[in-house]
From TrEMBL:
Signal sequence, renumbered to the chain: none
Domain of life: Bacteria
Gene Ontology molecular function terms on file: 3-oxoacyl-[acyl-carrier-protein] reductase (NADPH) activity
Protein name (database record): 3-oxoacyl-ACP reductase
């Protein structure tokens, strides 16, 4: 559904009224397209602290933006990467201010600020305090930047292991990811791929709930990135499902993900194995708890959480999920922050986050598989288009980017997580929602 307010604010009367009334003035986000795959402008590489991350500059040269360590003159940087991995004391935090303060106003519209931090030391509480301070700094900066610009903190001990994450964050693909802290896992590397622009070439992906909305967008982006996609949805959605599968050059699989034998049927449909499992299927049955019938509670928990647990367990145990693969589940900002009228939905999505955090370390150690989740906020879909106008407008504006996200924003994040490199992460795709995020 079109965001008429955003369109109006781009007109002369809209600019006048929003300025006079102090209303949000969102900037249309720059998203990936084959014609414009990169941000426009140079990358400014800055360092705070005494020990820069070895090999970082070489990694940055491969992200698609030309890195510079000196003044840019009148040019506006498309992105700023601040290496703060060497910040280990409170006094060293002065460098963070000193390096970013002079340049933050000059960042181009829809630009990026990426701060690199180090893992928190369990043996040095001064280092841990200084590095944790970066989390609050980045979350606050993300709320200040405006004009479609985003800020992210990445904790890492290895520049090469951070490359897939930097490629994502320093591109238009991360347009709706803002104010997040991401931890890179050095031993969660995906298999090397030498196909430019198709990082998932040679891999097979299964996307549940793929007949429409976010699931269809995920199928399209994974196929664009080279994966062979199997699109799964309920038999009642077969017509839309077949259409999506044909559009991405994949295969449809019509079955109810809550069926007792769903795992067995998926394995039978994938005799060659599976590399990327995307749990996107989900339903809502909203009511306040006092008015919620038992079947509304149990059906949401079964589809959104129970089926995720059962099928993941079976596909891991059966070996259908191949070593070096990935699981990407769908949580929700509602599950992290709560939402009135959605106790069942929020419980199911919070459960997904619990699944990820518990299973991820074991899955990586025992099977070489990463487990992560996306947590969408307000995304423009058929479901949100049916929300009453005032509630819909509040959902759109109550984030740092002052607009709703698109299904492709979730899909791009899923595709990045499918590559490996991070593990046990729940990534909010919400424009930095101001409600509990």
């Amino acid at each position: 559904m079109a965001d008429r307010y955003l369109t109006f604010t781009r007109t002369a009367p809209g600019r006048f009224l929003t300025r006079r009334l102090g209303l949000p003035r969102p900037v249309p986000l720059r998203r990936f397209s084959p014609e414009h795959p990169a941000l426009d402008g140079p990358l400014l590489h800055l360092t705070a602290g005494d020990l820069p991350l070895p090999g970082l500059h070489e990694v940055l040269t491969r992200t698609g933006l030309p890195p510079h360590t000196g003044p840019l003159g009148t040019r506006h940087p498309a992105a700023v990467v601040l290496d703060a991995t060497g910040v280990a004391t409170v006094s060293a935090l002065v460098d963070v201010h000193a390096t970013l303060h002079p340049v933050v106003r000059s960042i181009a519209d829809c630009g990026r600020v990426v701060v690199l931090g180090a893992p928190l030391s369990p043996a040095d509480h001064h280092q841990a305090a200084a590095q944790q301070a970066l989390d609050g700094f980045v979350r606050s900066l993300a709320k200040e930047l405006g004009r479609g610009r985003t800020a992210t903190l990445v904790r890492t001990a290895s520049a090469p292991a951070t490359e897939p994450t930097l490629r994502f964050l320093l591109s238009p693909k991360s347009a709706y990811v803002n104010g997040q802290t991401i931890e890179v896992t050095p031993d969660a590397h995906a298999p090397e791929n030498d196909s430019p622009g198709r990082p998932l070439a040679g891999r097979t992906a299964l996307v549940t709930g793929a007949a429409r909305g976010i699931g269809a967008a995920v199928a399209e982006v994974l196929a664009r990135d080279g994966a062979r996609v199997v699109a799964l949805d309920v038999p009642a959605a077969r017509t839309d499902l077949v259409r999506v599968a044909e559009r991405v050059g994949g295969a449809p699989l019509a079955l109810d993900i809550t069926a007792d034998d769903a795992g067995e049927r998926i394995a039978a449909a994938l005799p060659g194995g599976l590399d990327v499992l995307v749990h996107n299927a989900g339903i809502t049955r909203d009511r306040r708890l006092a008015n919620m019938a038992a079947d509304r509670w149990s059906s949401v928990l079964d589809v959104n959480l129970g089926s995720v647990l059962r099928t993941t367990d079976f596909l891991l145990k059966s070996g259908t999920l191949r070593r070096g693969g990935s699981v990407v589940a769908t949580a929700s900002v509602a599950g992290l922050a709560g939402n009135a009228g959605q106790t069942n939905y929020a419980a199911s999505k919070a459960g997904v986050a619990g699944l990820v955090r518990s299973l991820a370390p074991r899955a990586l150690a025992e099977h070489g598989i990463t487990v992560n989740a996306v947590a969408p906020g307000f995304i423009e879909t058929r479901m949100t288009a049916a929300v009453p106008l005032l509630i819909r407008e509040a959902g759109r504006r109550l984030n740092s980017l002052a607009q709703g996200g698109q299904p492709v924003d979730v899909a791009e994040t899923v595709a990045w997580l499918a590559l490996g490199g991070v593990n046990a992460q729940v990534i909010r795709v919400c424009g930095q929602s101001l409600l509990g995020a």
